[in-house]
Every structure is written in structure tokens, then in C-alpha cells.
Amino acid sequence: MSNALPAPAAPASATAKAPTRPRKRGGARRTDNLMGYLFIAPWLVAFLAFTLIPIVASFVLAFTNYDVLNPSWSWVGLQNFERMFTRDPRYIKSLQATFFYAFTAIPLRLAFALAVAMLLNTHRRGVSTYRAAYYAPSIVGGSVAVAVMWREIFGADGLINAILGTDITWLGNPNTAIWTLIVLAVWQFGSPMLIFLAGLKQIPREFYEAAAIDGAHGGQQFWHITLPLLTPIIFFNLVMQLISGFMVFTQAFIITGGAPLDTTLFYALYLYQRAFVSLQMGYASAMAWVLLAIVAVMTALVFRSSSYWVFYGSQEEN
Amino acid sequence: MDSATTAPADRAMSRSQSRPLWRRMPTRTLLYHLLVGGLGILMLYPILWLFASSFKGAAEIWTNVRSLIPQDFTLANYTNGWRGFGGITFATFYANSFFYAGVATLLTVLASAVVAYGFARINFVGRRIWFACMLATLMLPVQVQIIPQYIIFSELGWINTFYPLLLPRIGGQAFFIFMIMQFIRGIPKDLDEAAEMDGCGKGGIFFRIILPQIVPALITAAIFSFYWTWEDFLTPLIYLNDPKLYTVSLALRSFADPSGQTDWGAIFAMSSLSLVPVFVIFVAFQRFLVEGISTTGLKG
């Protein structure tokens, strides 16, 4: 394929490129629609077939009582949404559980990630080994195996009770069950940690040296140099964690199944139950759109707030 | 504070300027390794516990809970667990998982590379809009797509096949497309231009110039794609109901069902085993992973 292409392209490129200096490469760019669309075609086809059309379909379904088993479905207008917020106590429970989880697990995870990144931001021997050890839980964190392991660790005869010498039913108690999932999330701080670490390495040493000469100690250096210069990275991590935090599924599905008393019935888990267990796909589609709205609003709030707390230094090329 | 103490010797002064005082003190270093190393072991402890428990006999598994060293080491959990359930062994589940993860990864990485080149280096009408669409899909909850996808695939009669799992991969994945684009942007355009002068088309430039240079990015993408597919649970859960088609994730969930199975040793053994491919790749390609995440912010 590549052999057939050069001939027609050659004359055009020769005239277009000859006068261009290396510095001004952006100015005189030709458009090449055929090749452009040829290269993005795989994505475009998949996007239309598996993303865009399903999204439109999902939006339509949200206003129906579609049910896979029952072919006679009808428009119900806003009934699905009305039912969600007024006549579905489990839905309210799932919102509570998801928001509680997101608002505790995400800040804790980011705080741990930053603390550990600062510990690992040195040139000591063995740092790469430590980095691997801290990151290891994150690469297996989403797996069923780790979820099964977590269930047994917090089980009645499990590791935690054995270490503490207690007899607590962590997973059966409505006050503690969600915390086992939060601890699991915090344990997997590896990715934001690596991103923080990359950000810490970008901060010029001179800043700290100048601060030390002025008599600023460790804590002051952290508040006045490290934290402000890291805010763009905190912002990025926050957005990424927010999006994934609202969609957590596997861990709750395996470890608690939403129990006890629906205190761990995360949004994605309840949506799955509605769509694929009760087969109420119209209602579940409406739930999916509310989830999209929640994530969009939360992300927009973070973006809006960023002008107040995200500090962009002079080196904007980075 | 340093300036007063370093006055007598020039050598000491220059050292103290380049390295803070506490970094030169061995007790600090020792404390550092105690703290960071200890915390690291604590982090790994649950996983080590899982592996250790998989070698413990049935008698000690819930009596000798804390210890990481089995009293009488046994491999019986692995042989018992491998038998699986319903007459289907874990050999089938591993074959399914390797098939799914292997094909999906191949499709994802190849497509992502091609698409990334298109977005990064070719100027075409509508590029900005499509690129914005692609970035938007990064934030899109899968829940918005999976229900209609399920309806379409079930109408096509594709439940209990791998088509619904593999077909959506033909377009690559937005994360990897974006990551590879960042990589391509780092390659000097002079090379493209020189090749174009020599009569090389866009296809030729991609295959002969860009592709050989983005191999590290492709390896990173391949590793993450393999991980995510290997651990994928929701998609197989929805589309694969026949135990003969179960991936390891699905099989583990049925195998470790607390209401049925009580052979905890076997459950721990099969759980441990399912993590082995992940850790083998992690150890072998650690450098690519760390660089990939640090430069692009991929989730792990």
C-alpha cells in the first residue's frame, strides 16, 4: 500500500515545502482530507457505531419503559427520572453511597499519592524498587482476584481481625462496609503517585535553595513552593479520579454486592442490576444519563474552580 | 542557617549548597529506609498474604492467618483449583482470557497507532471536531453506551460470542491514541518533510519513519491494554453466560462464590495464579509503565 502512494504526493509537497524554513512549520500546511480520513477511519467507524449511535439510542431509551423481555414498550416521558428521585429509595441510597465514596476515597487517595511521591522524590539507592512496590497494588487493583482477596482479608476469620485480635464483621456492618472499599481505593494510589512524582521532578531545585537561604523550613517550603507549583498536576489528577470514582463497579460487585442495607450500592452497581438483572433498560438508560450529568457537573465545577487555586507558572510550554 | 556553619571550609560550603544538610546524614538515610521500606512492605502485605495463603493446607488457612510462611507447604490448592467447576478446568478460562486479551490488545494498539498518526500529522477538514469528540469519550461513562450496545449485539445474536468484546476495539482506545499522539509530536517534523521530498506519501512516512520511532509508546499501550482487558469484568459479565466461554475474571467470581465453594485454599490459589501474568509483565516492562504513566497520566 505504501508503495503506491508517493507518486502523486511528490510534486505538491516539493512546491509547498521548498520555501518553508524549519522554524515556521505551522504556517503553510497543506490539507490532505483523503489521507486524513483514511488514517482516522478505524476510530471514526468505531466511534459512530459503538459510541455515537448507542449514545443517541440511550437518550431515546431513557424516555421509554423498554424492557428486553417485553417487546411492547411505550414512551413514558420524564417518568423514569421522576421515579428515580421520588419513588426509588434504593436509587437515593446508591447516590448517597457513591457521593460518600467519591468524596472520601478521592481526597485520601490523592493525599497518600502526594505524600508518597514526596518521599520517593530523592536519588537514594533503592528508590526505584520502592516505587515499584508502591505501584504494584495499583496494577492488580481492578481485578476480581484482588476483590476476592479483599473480601477474605476483611472477612470474619480474615487477616484484619487476626491482626487486631477483634471479631468485627467488617463487611456486614453498615457503618464499616463502605470503608473497606475506601481503604481498597486508597491502597491503589499508584497512578496519581507516579504523576505527582513526575511533577515534583519538574520543580527547579533553585527554588528550594533560595527558600532555604531565606530561612524557610520544610513545612514552609511545602506550602509556598511545592504545593502551588503542583496545583496543575493536582487538578489533572482530581479530574481523572473524579471521573473514575463515580464509575467504580467490580470491587463493590464482588466484595459487598451492595450490602449491607444498600450502603455500598454504588451507582454503577445499581445501574447494572436494573439493566441486566431486572432488565429494565429504559430506566437504567435514564440512570446512565443522570450519571453522565453528575460527572459533567462535577468536572465542570472543578474546571471552574481551577482559576482560583491552580497556579500556572511562567513555563507554560510544559 | 547553613552559611554560619560552613564558613571554615570551602569544601563543606560547596557541598552544603548542592545538597541539603539532612541528606548527608547517615542516620537520616537509615530512618528513610526504615520508614519507606516498612511502608512498602505494608503495601505489599495483602498480596504477599494471598500468595502465602495459597500454599497453606486446609487445616491452617484460617488458623495460621497472619503468617506469611506456610507451616506445611502444599501445592494441592493449585491442583484442586485448576479443576475448576462444572467439568470445565481453568485451562479453558485461561485460553479464553489470553484469546480475549491478546486479540483485543493487538487490535487496540494497531488501530491506536494509525489513528494517532492521522490526528497528529495530517491536516484535514474536521480534524479539530473529531479530535474533540475523541477527547470527550475519555470522560464518557461506559454506562451510557453499554445498554444500547447490548440490545444491538443481542439482536445480532452475538450473546455468548467474543464479537461484542472485540469489535469495539477496531477503533483503538482514546487513551492510547492520545498517548501515542503525544509521542509522535515529539518526533521532529524535518524527518517527515525530508521523506516527503524524496517522494514518500503519508502511508510511507507512517510505516517507515513514524512507526519505528513510536515502538516504546506502543509497548506501553500494549501493556496497559493487556492489563485492562485481562482484568475486564463488566463486558464479559454482560455478554458471556456460557461457562465454557468464561474469562479468568468471570470464572474466579463464580469459583469464589461464598454461597457455594468452601475450598478457600483453591480460591486463593486460582486468585494468585490470575495475577501472575500481570506481575510477570510488570517486572519485565517496569520502565515502560512508569514512563507511560508519568508522561501521559494514564490510569493504572
Structure explained in plain terms:
The complex is a heterodimer of chains A (about 325) and B (about 300). Chain A is an all-alpha fold and about 325 residues long. Chain A has a domain of about 190 residues: MetI-like (MetI-like fold), CATH 1.10.3720.10. Chain A has 14 helices and no strands. The longest helix of chain A is centred in the first third of the chain and has 32 residues. The radius of gyration of chain A is 26 Å and the shape is globular. Chain B is mostly helical and about 300 residues long. Chain B has two domains: about 45 residues, no CATH class; about 200 residues, MetI-like fold (Orthogonal Bundle). Helix content of chain B is about 70%, strand content about 0%. The chains are: A mainly alpha (about 325), B mainly alpha (about 300). Chains A and B meet through helix 1, helix 2, helix 4, helix 5 and helix 6 of A and helix 3, helix 5, helix 6, helix 7 and helix 10 of B.
Helical fraction of chain A equals: 55-70%
Q: What Rg of chain A do the Cα atoms give?
A: 26 Å
The number of helices of chain A is 14
Which CATH-level-2 architecture of one domain in chain A? Orthogonal Bundle
The global form of chain B is: globular
Q: Number of domains in the coordinates of chain B?
A: 2
Percent of residues in helices of chain B: 55-70%
Distance between the termini of chain A: 38 Å
What is the third-level CATH name, the topology of one domain in chain A? Answer: MetI-like fold
The secondary-structure class of chain A comes to mainly alpha
Q: Indicate the mean pLDDT of chain B.
A: 86
CATH architecture title of the largest domain in chain B: Orthogonal Bundle
Report the average pLDDT across residues of chain A: 85
What composes the largest sheet of chain A?
none
Q: List the chains of the largest interface with their residue counts.
A: A-B, 116 and 112 residues
Structural class, from secondary structure content of chain B?
mainly alpha
Low-confidence segments of chain B: 1-16
